[in-house]
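The aim of this short unit is practical: by the end, you should be able to scan a pair of folded records and say something sensible about each. We start with the first protein, listed as its amino acid sequence and then its structure tokens.
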Amino acid sequence: MTKQDSVKPTNFIHQIIEQDIEKNVHGGQVITRFPPEPNGYLHIGHAKSICLNFGTAIKYGGQCHLRFDDTNPEKESQEYIDSIISDVRWLGFQWAGDIRYTSDYFQQLHDWAVYLIKEGKAYVDDLNAEQMREYRGTLTEPGKNSPYRDRSVDENLALFEQMKDGTRPEGSCVLRVKIDMASPNINMRDPVIYRIRHAHHHQSGDQWKIYPSYDFAHGQSDAIEQITHSICTLEFEDHRPLYDWLINNLPVPSQPKQYEFARLNLNYTITSKRKLKQLVDEKHVEGWNDPRMPTISGLRRRGYTPASIRNFCDMIGVTRSNGIVDMAMLESAIRDDLDANAPRAMCVTRPLKVTITNFAEGEEEWFELAAHPKDESMGHRRVSFGRNLLIEQEDFEEVAPRKWKRLAAGEAVRLRGAYVIRCEEVIKNDAGDIIELKCTYDPATKGVNPEGYKANGVIHWVNADHSVPCEVRLYDRLFTEANPESDKSRSFLDFINPESLVVLTGCRAEPSLAEVKPEQNFQFERMGYFCVDQNSTSDNLVFNRTVTLRDSWAKIQQG
């Protein structure tokens, strides 16, 4: 990582860091970390934390660690670890040194728990979970001491050893630190720092029968790694006194400080890992990387780019005020990126046959069209014009409505990059459905409109004989409500958008798309931005709609 030329403060955390550097706190070093729990896939909220932690380290010439907070083996898996590693790399960041795991420090954390027992600051408690809640008190009433709080050091050491050896059953006891049961902060009322779990761990195997709590492991892992600025979201603000208490009462090698920022809350979205897992487990979506999911892997499969997500995180900024960000901001970020960087192409999603009656059967004419109207470096692509063409069904009306800018019976329209055609005859089947248009083309309109010539508009098209078959998946927002969790009388599942995925088969794309690769982005002219699905093949070409050309939801909301 290299230090950027400018270190102008951009948020309150950066201002704190610059003051620390000026005062030579932490020796002027900046070491951050991104510490996800490997119990699910990362979502867009994690992207904000990734960009902040890694971006801060880059800005100040420091380093950022990737550390898995793997203290809950029953809910964790290697699948989640692999996906998180992939997501961080895809976003464009590289961690310092090796990947780290809290489980790397289990022995040290155990030894520090023993240290607290010997100091008379930790005890083994036999209260069950219900009793512990009763003794803890409420927000307005103090708690009361456990009857096991005054056990001797020797007794606590012996009991903790039994917990460690696996001779005590799960749920029979826990290790708590002795702080203050009357504290106004419930997190300081003798919190649990170790519990018994007879579970196989994906990193340490069956070595441990006890596992540290998040609060105990987190700060101490920061201290071991010499983290200078432990940046987390606001829900951990009430945990900071405990973070500091443990740091101050243990012989840790460094003194990290915790700072909190507002998490990312996005409308039309949920980011609860439990509820995202429910969507997956109950098959409301295809999987964690379903393009409708707010996971980073889902956004990637849908066609979002690393740059668009990083730019989005810059747009929303870093503050201490909770709020809800409009999904339109994320969609705007990807539109801006793809408008500048995605090559253009034509794809007809609901084909209507057009026969050019005055163009000879078997002949063809090739046109060269710019791959991007504003970027000549992208080059050109070739499209074929012939007798048998396809246009969108929605681009034709037998009787043109007012201000109609497409094709209608007896009227003319320009085919993008080719000729002006006129509809001379409409062919229908026995049910009255339009199945074919008989049209003529004007050779004098190749790339120009002769003086006095008027066409209704410009539409896209493909040559039926020189186009490639494909499937197009029209993805939209997963929920119909801006806050699908607001109605406590209903499940968030009740607000799943039935139109969040529309699969179109029998689509035809221009021949330049025959050799595309997964995750390539395109603008389908007049249709939106699309990407090649990860599972797409040359024999089964699949395009996912990333986003429409304009904010269609804004129009819907305006009525």
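Turning to the second protein, read its sequence before its tokens, just as you did above.
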Amino acid sequence: MDMKRIREQIDDITADLLRQQSRDGAWRMCFDSGTMTDSYLIILLRLLERPDEHLIRNLAARIASRQETNGAWKVYPDEAEGNLEATAEAYYALLCARFYHESDPRMVMAKQFILKQGGLSEAKNLLTQVIFAATGQAEWPRLLRIPLEAFFSDLGIGLDLFSLSGHARVHLVPTLIMANKSFARRTPSMPLLTDLFVGQSRAFTNDATWISALNGFIASLPLTSLLPPSSPTALERAEAFMFERIEPNGTLLTFSTATILMILSLLALDYSPQSHAVNQLLAGAISLICADRPHLQVASSEVWDTAMLSYALREAGMQPNHNALERAGHYLLDRQQVRLGDWARRLPNTPAGGWGFSNVNTLYPDVDDSVAALRSIRHYTSVTNGLHANWQRGLNWVLAMRNDDGGWPAFEREGTQLPASFFTFEGSADISTDPSTVDLTSRVLSFLGNELDMTIGHQWLDDSVQWVLSQQERDGSWYGRWGIAYIHGTGAAIQGMTAVGVPNDHPAIKKGIKWLLEIQNEDGGWGESCLSDKVKHYMPLHASTPSQTAWALDALTAAHAKPNAAIERGVEALLQSLERRDWTYFYPTGAALPGSVYVFYPSNNYIWPLLTLSTILKKYGS
């Protein structure tokens, strides 16, 4: 390996990052999740009759630029043919924007693709169905007509809203408000899309009927006589639930999608489109538009990017007292959370102390960001400056978040769950719960081992390692929930276990390394399709991406005291992919909603290659 070339690449990445850092110490990189949110914002602006033509035209141009030659839109580049939901949303948004007309060839092709897939009734994504139903284009699914009393009453019916994940809750509550009110609004300037359905029905085919029976049962209960006169109604409780989770920038728990749904639900509750609440929420959503492109982020990633990039720069040799790292550290310290969020329901005696994903996140901390922030600020917290208590509070929060199975979740400790078949929307099993995941658990193990010198031999840590081992697939890989997918999970698992002292020749690690070597591409790199995340088994991309190559190299480097041919080939592939910057550089290797939303993190092409190359230089460069 050419160590000089590796050093030069590290220096180039470092210089590039220093140029991009904001004055307040943060890095602000666009969390690019495709065209879904852009489509929703255009539709919402037209529904509210807000004439922001410049914004609408820019969003529409970006959507149009993503159309495939067959007329479809995709949620990841190698998706076969196209994606029904993404195409229907883009088609609807472009017509609302008046960017194209139905007779334009590109719209004709898009419509043909939708009909070829069986029409709009075959859409299985929850958000797609809600947007089309709320704007009068489709029937409300019976599956969503769950009486609000099932979640917001004192009757003990048995449906616990807090058994769902936090992100599922803030999307479900406004949706149920609209569904219960059969809300549908369409302005005269918006298109009518009945011709996107095959046949006369405007219902979705994945709808379930059992909800109708529950609905009838709830309706038969003498609710008004059981509730005292002063008790708030279920609608009032649902409305209060949303307002209690508004973040300082006006978003609902920082999600633009949840914020858009809340605006629609307020219209269903007879709020004026010009009301203060609607204006505040709309401004919050618009504040999430990227600075460098016309794209509405699902959520912004400042805390994650800043924590991980500052850590990577430190590992690359930058001194902790460097101005850039000090500014990043102060930025992160200012964003440590002090408010108790819903997570506290399962941790009632644990003080707040975690970090969230976004710049304005004050209620929804997560384990991954908290670990990243703790690692980044450790050099700036001490007893002498009075900040050690902050660091300790954050560490205590992370440790308290461990599930009983020994693994770590993302946002909340695991509690009781609704039946897996409760919702039939695509990806619902992955997004409605928040179980332990291999990638997050392994990153916690890496932190505990590398930063706190913790090792196996203690039952508490051994249990976590055993849980990771129990999740290994038969082929030797591990699934990673928040990255794509088996390369991500396998790289994290091997790094995490070796960091706490699991020997390199452990059978599970040897089996994982063998699997990585078996899927190494001819060019020496690694690449995995987003399809893996949907079908839940490894699907090759047939090309190498920088972040996935880095993840695989992390595992190989952790397991080998000396470099070998596979590592050398991998490093060469990584260097070439960083220099080449072709389509693989922009491939979405971040996972969000399985089968529906995948994310291109620009920071992924800095964080992971920088950490990998720095480790290789330090371990093999002497």
